[in-house]
Amino acid sequence: MGTNIQLKMLLARQGSGKELPIFSGDANDWPAFISNFRRSTFDEDENMLRLQKSLRGRARETVGPLLALPENVDVVIKSLERKFGRLDVVISNMIEKIRDEKPESIMELFNGVMGL
User: Fold this and answer.
1) What's the number of domains the chain is made of?
2) Could you report the per-residue pLDDT of 31-53, keeping only the tens digit for each?
3) Mean pLDDT (whole number) for 63-68
4) Which domain holds residue 103?
């Protein structure tokens, strides 16, 4: 590996923490999780360790057997993205949350978004 690439990887590591946020399979948490993963530059071994530490619940069940080998990092991410990274699921979850809220809570949220 060239010195220039090694230096870039070292600087990337210093600029971002190694730890990923915990991801349990909540589609609403997917954008922050995947963004954090993609913003950091680590080798396959380090990325697999990070995934092993951060995945819980349904997310871990989805890719559990794949977490054994570092060369599976891309497959793990693609599997998680297929299951939890769907925009329609995030929107559906938001609509469901709104349905469960009291009307005055929805108005407070609306006023906050509108800057009132």
Assistant:
1) 2
2) 899 999 999 879 999 999 999 99
3) 96
4) 87-116
